[in-house]
Amino acid sequence: MLLVDDLVNPAVLEHANTGARIVHVGKRGGCKSTPQAFIEKLMVSETLAGEHVVRLKGGDPFIFGRGGEEIEALREAGIEASVINGITSGLAGLTSLNTPLTHRNHAHGVVFITGHAKPGDAGTDWRQLAQTAHDAKLTLVIYMGISGSEHIQQELLHGLPASTPAVVIQNASLPTQRHATTTLGELRHTIEREQLASPSIIVIGDVVRGVQALQQHPPASAARA
Amino acid sequence: MLLVDDLVNPAVLEHANTGARIVHVGKRGGCKSTPQAFIEKLMVSETLAGEHVVRLKGGDPFIFGRGGEEIEALREAGIEASVINGITSGLAGLTSLNTPLTHRNHAHGVVFITGHAKPGDAGTDWRQLAQTAHDAKLTLVIYMGISGSEHIQQELLHGLPASTPAVVIQNASLPTQRHATTTLGELRHTIEREQLASPSIIVIGDVVRGVQALQQHPPASAARA
């Protein structure tokens, strides 16, 4: 039995066992969204009924993929599960633009953070995060940040220069991927002008200069690295 | 032509074209280490000589993998390259322990950071990072942190409670992987007692409670999530 999210490429399902039941439990795009609690209950009840349950997601289930909640639900029911990493959009997006998230000379680390915390939670202190990212040379990768991008930009500007390079990548790793390079100071303006929408990741930091260099100097010959 | 790092599983090479030249350019383990500049020159010269060059690494080349430097060297020589993501040890390690790096209730994000910056660079302000990780609920994943772990621990304790759960995972994703759970306050002591050595990742944050829960309640039946 396959429980399949909306962001999973349909071509993946061609590899499924022909006898497998395929259930689409996506949370976006369709007319109805499947509540997380329902998915967890289904995983538990079908496994206890003797089914071999495979949960298919886009990206990495343990990076903003709610894999932690699903593992907890299974564990509470005494069910063993194994999780296989995928490529999270924060990695896939910048890689597709041939640009690293860390670099010995420019970035000593990277922060993956949600721009959209659970309702009711205290919001992220973006000013403090910006100061730390600046001082410790960290690339910022913001998931689900489009709707809050005006607020995030204004707050980050208290700790990072307006000239800090940024890129917004919509539909990272999908055939419909598109992106726009900008700066922190022009972030919101660029999102509006280019009509960039969810799902997008926003990457802010000096490493993004690599994307810009690429666009200015299109390479001549071909190799793989 | 394949340029292969030491951390690459030899089984991967069985998939190589039988006519391919395989060159081991690892930087650890052997009697001699291959300088990074030599590897970059080799990639450029062989590509310009008409070879199809594949650079094989363990983990993800754009997360502490020096992929950024190699892409720059190629770009300067006018050579086009494409990079394929791998699973970086910071993801593979905690996933193998069935534990998420982010969690809606416990961690709004994750920081991947090197414990071992380039010689001559100003060191990371671990106190500031600890405060930000605490306030913004970020999981800390420290690469190459074993040799500096005493200093890192002492500094992080200024911003995070000594009781913060931690886990050290040596040889993440390899058959020789082993780990020890601990707390930030007992980190150095645990590394010494368990003789944990490089390459290891250190994960610090509330999500690590998931590893501990797993060890206390071994699951009963089997499924895949």
From TrEMBL, chains A, B:
Domain Tetrapyrrole methylase: 5-187
Keywords: Methyltransferase, Porphyrin biosynthesis, S-adenosyl-L-methionine, Transferase
Any one GO BP annotation for this protein: methylation
Tagged with keyword rRNA processing: no
Keyword S-adenosyl-L-methionine applies: yes
Pfam family, one: TP_methylase
EC number: 2.1.1.107
GO molecular function: uroporphyrin-III C-methyltransferase activity
This protein's name: uroporphyrinogen-III C-methyltransferase
Organism of derivation: bioreactor metagenome
Gene: sumT_2
